[in-house]
Write a structure and sequence with these properties.
Strand order of the largest sheet: 1-2
Strand content: under 5%
Helix content: 25-40%
Radius of gyration: 20 Å
Distance between the termini: 7 Å
Structural class: mainly alpha
Number of strands: 2
Length: 334
């Protein structure tokens, strides 16, 4: 397979990402302009390389798992499972969050232990139950793939392959995975028929009665903050992961508030995948979560009627948009 054919296929990103050679991707309607890190500015060749690496199972120890295995376009960049499956069919203990709109996130993972997308990209590679590899082994393997050398040269100016360059490329690609121009965005722009009457009523429930925007605020419907809503807190040994990162009592049982963009397509829900449908999610919040010693002050019984619950679910479905739909590369570098 020639370098030209690999690069052409890798550059086959959604149309909104393709512009002038040096032009940065334009965010779809409803999203703010992208801000690129100074140490990892956008370059189309880098994003193209990152896309190929993202889908390459050779980054795992046994060639069975890629980034896309747990964050697949087929499931709106999740895996559609309660918890993720890594090499040797090992199960993790958390649901895979979507990659969509990660460009607007701050710390990564449910517990915020990674400070950037670049740092996050490196983590699963050497996690023994995810990709089960080492950074050194990954670099060594990629160096043996002749088809990768010109891709790295195009992206970075030389054929040198390092784990930092691998992470930079993957993160560059991931920042182009966006969702906007949803019915909600078009409605806010003035297209009053963009949302159904049920969705319009549900929007009022979301913002006015349930006040979901106390946590799910802004264009990406998240404050990028953390909250304890009680999920799993009734178990004998609950997952209190953010606490294990900061060792602060206020972080006991808190998890990062996810975006609600594409929420209809990213079931099951919560960090443990314990809620299968949006109806179950709304019912969970309506009852006030699960009481525990660190329950967020915003989590209280909502006392929604059945009609309000139905309308709220309808509104959440109006947050599905476009800009993230894509397929895996037809072929990998050889």
């Amino acid at each position: 397979m020639t370098f030209r054919s690999i690069l052409a296929g890798a550059l086959a990103l959604p149309a909104i990402f393709i512009g002038a050679r040096a032009a940065e991707p334009k965010a779809p309607l409803g999203l703010p302009p992208l801000v690129w890190p100074k140490d990892n500015p956008y370059a189309p060749e880098k994003a193209a390389l990152g896309r190929v690496l993202y889908f390459d199972r050779r980054l795992s120890a046994d060639d069975s798992v890629s980034c896309a295995s747990c964050h697949s376009p087929e499931f709106a960049f999740t895996d559609g499972a309660p918890v993720s499956t890594g090499i040797k069919s090992q199960k993790g203990n958390r649901s895979a969050p979507t990659v969509i709109n990660r460009a607007y996130s701050l710390a990564q993972f449910w517990d915020g232990r990674a400070g950037s997308l670049e740092e996050q990209a490196k983590g699963p590679m050497q996690n023994p139950i995810e990709m089960g590899n080492t950074h050194g082994a990954i670099v060594g393997r990629l160096q043996k793939v002749a088809g990768y050398r010109p891709l790295f040269a195009k992206a970075f100016g030389s054929e040198e392959i390092t784990i930092d360059r691998v992470a930079l490329a993957i993160a560059c690609f991931e920042r182009t995975v966006l969702s906007g121009n949803a019915p909600y965005d078009r409605y806010k722009r003035g297209e009053k028929k963009a949302m159904t009457p049920e969705q319009v009523r549900g929007m009022s429930v979301f913002f006015d009665k349930a006040k979901c925007d106390r946590c799910h605020e802004g264009a990406n419907f998240t404050l990028n903050a953390y909250a304890n809503i009680g999920v799993g807190m009734d178990k004998p040994e609950p997952d209190v992961r953010r606490y294990t990162v900061t060792h602060s009592a206020r972080d006991w049982g808190v998890f990062k508030t996810p975006t609600l963009r594409e929420i209809e397509r990213t079931a099951p829900y919560m960090h443990d995948g314990s809620l299968k449908t949006l109806d179950e999610v709304v019912a969970f919040y309506d009852k006030g979560g699960i009481p525990n010693k660190n329950l967020d002050e915003n989590i209280k019984a909502l006392h929604l009627s059945d009609a309000e619950k139905k309308d709220l679910v309808a509104f959440l479905k109006a947050l599905g948009g476009e800009g993230w739909q894509m397929k895996a590369p037809d072929r990998m570098p050889e």
